[in-house]
């Protein structure tokens, strides 16, 4: 049978599209949740605990704009993600005053009241630390590898939670992700939290002694640490700017 040129072109397009879709599902199925904060509307699934602060989504970022929101202040997502999973987000400190309640970063295994494990910029902009909210600090105060977080500059923060413990790292937006974790700890600081798969962004906990104004962008959760990278936000995710339960459902269906 003689195949026409148009038929061959059509067949080639079908094969190419099929390969693209297969490759896409293999990559994106590992992304459990993503929000790029591009639709100027806070996702209805977010809750704000234990003190709500003043969260605003605008100009492609989400910001906590109350300088003294009280302890603790979380944008919380009850995701129910299985462990292990990794969380990545871009953070910018908009204003800061050194104090114990000056905090910003990633929360995991959070209760519905907004308490759990946190990987934080804490007390001053040259200190990273783990916290088990309301129970204990890990006392692993460590400066960032670049020395100090600068106000107004974007950084990537990444954390991993598993049965083996809690890990975290931070690096400037324009630089390559460090190979090694900055902090790595067993669950030896305070009582061990129940696995629940809830995640959150810490918006500061000040009550007047200091201040914390913080913005976040490109927040994602993946079941593989190696997949939780800035590259995961380069893929088109539709007009809503979100890649949420769709890919999570694909992941869970296999």
CATH superfamily: Exo-inulinase, domain 1
Q: What's the helix-strand series? A: HEEEEEEEEEEEEEEEEH
Number of helices: 2
Number of strands: 16
Report the structural category.
mainly beta
Overall shape: globular
Average pLDDT value? 86
Write the CATH fold name: Jelly Rolls
Helix content bin: 10-25%
* Radius of gyration, CA atoms, in whole angstroms: 20 Å
CATH class: Mainly Beta
Please give the largest β-sheet: 9 strands, antiparallel
Strand proportion, as a percent range, falls in 35-45%
Number of individual domains: 1
Low-pLDDT stretches are 15-29, 237-254
CATH architecture: Sandwich
What does this molecule look like?
The protein has 254 residues and is mainly beta. It has a single domain (31-253), classed as Exo-inulinase, domain 1 (Jelly Rolls), CATH 2.60.120.560. Helices cover 13% and strands 37% of the residues. The protein has two helices and 16 strands. Strands 1, 3, 4, 6, 11, 12, 13, 15 and 16 form a nine-stranded antiparallel sheet that branches. A seven-stranded antiparallel sheet has the order 2-5-14-7-8-9-10, with no helix packed on it. A hairpin with a 2-residue loop joins strand 3 (55-58) and strand 4.
């Amino acid at each position: 049978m003689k195949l026409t040129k148009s038929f061959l072109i059509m067949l080639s397009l079908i094969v190419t599209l099929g390969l693209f879709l297969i490759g896409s599902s293999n990559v994106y199925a590992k992304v459990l949740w993503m929000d790029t904060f591009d639709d100027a509307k806070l996702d209805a699934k977010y809750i704000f605990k234990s003190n709500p602060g003043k969260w605003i989504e605008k100009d492609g970022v989400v910001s906590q704009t109350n300088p003294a929101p009280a302890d603790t202040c979380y944008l919380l997502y009850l995701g129910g993600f299985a462990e292990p999973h990794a969380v990545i987000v871009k953070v910018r400190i908009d204003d800061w005053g050194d104090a114990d309640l000056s905090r910003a970063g990633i929360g995991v295994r959070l209760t519905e009241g907004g308490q759990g494990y946190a990987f934080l910029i804490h007390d001053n902009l040259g200190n990273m630390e783990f916290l088990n909210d309301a129970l204990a600090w890990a006392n692993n105060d460590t400066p960032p590898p670049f020395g100090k977080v600068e106000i107004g500059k974007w950084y990537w923060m990444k954390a991993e939670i598993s049965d083996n413990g809690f890990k975290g790292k931070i690096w400037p937006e324009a630089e390559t992700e460090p190979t090694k974790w900055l902090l790595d700890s067993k669950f030896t600081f305070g009582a061990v939290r129940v696995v629940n798969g809830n995640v959150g962004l810490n918006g500061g906990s000040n009550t007047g002694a200091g201040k914390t104004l913080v913005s976040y962008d490109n927040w994602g959760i993946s079941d593989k640490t190696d997949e939780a990278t800035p590259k995961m936000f380069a893929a088109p995710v539709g007009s809503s700017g979100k890649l949420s339960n769709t890919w999570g459902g694909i992941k869970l269906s296999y």
